[in-house]
Write a structure and sequence with these properties.
D-amino Acid Aminotransferase, Chain A, domain 1; 14 helices; five-stranded antiparallel sheet; Rossmann fold; 424 residues; alpha+beta; Dna Ligase, domain 1; 4 domains
């Protein structure tokens, strides 16, 4: 089959890496892609601007199935445009993508579907926001309603900070128009888990559990980012916890979305807090996570393209995902200045040495220039490795990181450490 992959980040490189060379994949395209993706797929850049243009590109390429990596095209209606042309695509419609595109919609949907989540209120002006803050103890969580590239959530430990962030969000000063409505919610405590499934609108195939590291510094300190690394280990949730997540969160989402006339097809990402009262939803994403995709794709076995095609055609009932036993770890190497304004155009060296050290290096923010490979964004590379156990995977990933050089590079040094503390 001919497969088109939409996106240009580390998630898309990991997916392209897994799809490339599969027996069922005759041709792999990506738009716009990146220098890493270009090693395994034909990249079409610049990418078409809108949903209709993307659909026309897929039609022109003769793509048998298209996979959307990032959230923005989904929220903009890419799937609707493809289906209007009778084209197979993996992802939710714009209506279903509101689970990520609007924090307000997601919280109200969870209330209707009785899905466990934090208590919340929604505000649209500073006066109501100040009153809303009175309903919650500190720390309190503030969430911009719209898409904010992983930076629209702030956990405020002091009342003054909470009011400042709230006013800045509502005024459009923090994350632009995404913050014109704000969700204020109680802060949940426990261990975070990223639980992702692939759905055909009725059936689901669960991926292995992962744990993201959002804060920029070790020990979960500093501002949130799009993700500074993740690890994938079957032990992150127990068998009973897995069943509980599926029964109380995943299945209710699929059933209620269908009941409300918006069947959910594609990747459903549930960001969870494993509280003393059980799993509760922190957020939903409507695509595979990044950087979670990197360690997931490293562990995935079998023909990924066939499973994606089954989801696109509503035929996941008999599909199964197979996984290597070895845990995997992804360490994100970021540019100087990230998660603020990143320094770009910096030469990158050492990737071949890192790969020789046993890692898969996924490009997230790179481009080719006259001087060779240079940085082009905040998160630059996802250095990913597996091992016989979690400790071995961590050691291999960081040994590979040490081989890569670009001025101003920074990364967390504790990816996966929570797992080591839990299991030794």
């Amino acid at each position: 089959m001919r497969v088109l992959l939409i996106g240009s980040g580390g998630r898309e490189h990991a997916m392209a890496w897994r799809l490339a060379g599969r027996a069922s994949v005759k041709k792999l395209y990506a738009t716009p892609g990146n220098p890493g993706i270009a090693q395994v797929a034909e990249c079409i850049s610049p990418s078409p601007a809108g949903p209709e243009d993307l659909a026309r590109l897929a039609e022109w390429l003769g793509a048998d199935v298209t996979v959307v990596g990032p959230e923005a095209p989904l929220v903009a209606g890419a799937v609707d445009a493809f289906r209007a042309r009778g084209l197979a695509i993996v992802g939710p419609t714009a209506a279903a993508a509101r689970l990520e595109g609007s924090k307000v919609f997601a919280k109200e949907f969870m209330a209707r579907a009785r899905i466990p989540t934090a208590r919340f209120v929604t505000v649209e002006n500073a006066e109501d926001g100040v009153v809303g803050l009175d309903r919650f103890p500190l720390p309190v969580v503030l969430k911009a309603d719209g898409l904010a590239a992983g930076k629209g959530v702030v956990v405020a430990g002091e009342r003054r900070e909470a009011e400042q962030v709230l006013r800045a969000m509502l005024a459009g000063e923090y994350v632009g128009a995404a913050g014109r409505r704000v969700v204020i919610e109680e802060c949940l405590f426990g261990e975070e888990v990223s639980f992702i499934v692939l759905s055909d609108g009725l059936n689901v195939a669960a991926l292995e559990p992962t744990q993201d590291h959002k804060a920029v510094y070790d020990g979960d300190q500093g501002p949130n980012t799009g993700g500074m690394g993740a690890y994938c280990d079957s032990r992150i949730v127990t068998g009973s916890e897995r069943r509980l997540i599926l029964e109380t969160i995943i299945q209710p989402v699929i059933e209620h979305m269908a009941r409300e006339g918006h069947p959910f097809q594609g990747f459903l990402y549930a960001g969870l807090m494993m509280t003393s009262e059980g799993p509760k939803v922190l957020e939903f994403n409507v695509r595979m996570g990044d950087p979670e995709a990197q360690p997931l794709m490293l562990r995935l076995e079998g023909d990924f393209a066939e499973v994606l095609c089954a989801a696109a055609h509503g035929d996941l009932a008999g599909a199964r995902l197979a996984w290597q036993d070895a845990p995997s770890v992804c360490v994100v190497m970021a540019s100087e200045g990230y998660p603020g304004t990143p320094r770009t155009g910096v030469p990158v060296a050492g990737i071949e040495a890192a790969e020789a050290a046993g890692a898969a290096v996924f490009h997230a923010g790179t481009k080719l220039s006259q001087d060779g490979l240079v940085t082009s964004g905040g998160r630059v590379l996802g250095v990913t490795a597996s091992g016989a156990d979690l400790a071995a995977a961590i050691q291999r990933a960081y040994a590979a990181v040490e081989q890569i050089r670009f001025e101003g590079a920074h990364y967390r040094r504790d990816i996966g450490v929570k797992g080591l503390k839990r299991w030794g």
